[in-house]
Amino acid sequence: MFLFAFVAFGASALVYSVTVPAGTNACYIAGEMNGWNHQLMMKVDDTHYTIEIGKANVAHKYKYSSGPSWGYVEKAADGTEMDNRSYAEKDTVAGWAAVYDKSIKNVDMVYNVTVPAGTQCCYIMGGWDGWTAFAEMTKVDDTHYTITIPSNHLLKYNYFAGNGWGYMELGNNKWVRDDRSYSTNDVVSGWAAVYDKAVPDDDITYSVTVPEGTNNCYIAGGWNRWAFVEMERLDSKHFAVTVRSNKALKYLYLSGPDWNCVEADMAKNEPPIRSYAANDVVQNWKLVWEPKK
């Protein structure tokens, strides 16, 4: 019978125990307690791993990976990114960005991609460096780019029309696509935005007129991976904020720091994602945010 018990050795150590998906070959843990270095865990059976880490405490954040780099990091059940974990006696991993196999070594791999007409440049980012850097690709012609990277076919990746997340490629649903698995010839169907090197990032002011009764206004856009930025109230119906951005990047307004409060048309349908305008007007909100008192 398999049993994990919480074990605490005074205040100087913790035991981490995790259930992983079938087919996992190894499990690593990285967090504040070990300097975010990937530390190999002990295998208990095919789906359970454990480790005792000295000087760990319950305040430390952490994540699991199926291999010794962030290219193999854990994912949510729907494939999206996981927030850093807080300590629990028993953890469960729903999925991996990729499943590590130590018998598969990195080699020089060629990535070729066909891009939409009008693309000015193309970058690639992937698990070979833990999704930390945008690598600029070599232009072959107006719609084809290539690059050679030390990698392996387990690692996922995506293309970008600029050096930033706001220029990510889109899926067929015109929204964020799943991470790619290796193919010798890829095709990008569309971009969230197209970067022009002749138009660098700058301090850009976003100004908006909002409906009566709006308590607060936020903006979210491609310059910071769609994180919420609170805007300054100018009067009862006008807000503004200046951020380091690019006029190619898309954005939306919200009445509060919650996607349920996104802007809407008069019928409360969500409008298309915005392109830059000097003065925007919000017709309505899906929900008017009420600040906690």
Full CATH superfamily name of the largest domain: Immunoglobulins
The overall pLDDT average reads 93
Low-confidence stretches: 1-11
Would you tell me the structural class of the helices and strands? mainly beta
Strand order of the largest sheet: 4-5-1-8
- Radius of gyration in whole Å, from Cα? 23 Å
- Kindly report how far apart the N and C termini lie: 51 Å
Helix content: under 10%
Shape: globular
Question: In the CATH hierarchy, what is the class of the largest domain?
Answer: Mainly Beta
Order of helices and strands: EEEEEEEEEEEEEEEEEEEEEEEEE
Portion in strands: 25-35%
**Count of extended strands:** 25
Instruction: Report on the biggest sheet.
Output: 4 strands, mixed
Question: Could you say what the CATH topology of the largest domain is called?
Answer: Immunoglobulin-like
Q: Quaternary state, please?
A: single chain
Number of helices: 0
Going by CATH, the architecture of the largest domain would be: Sandwich
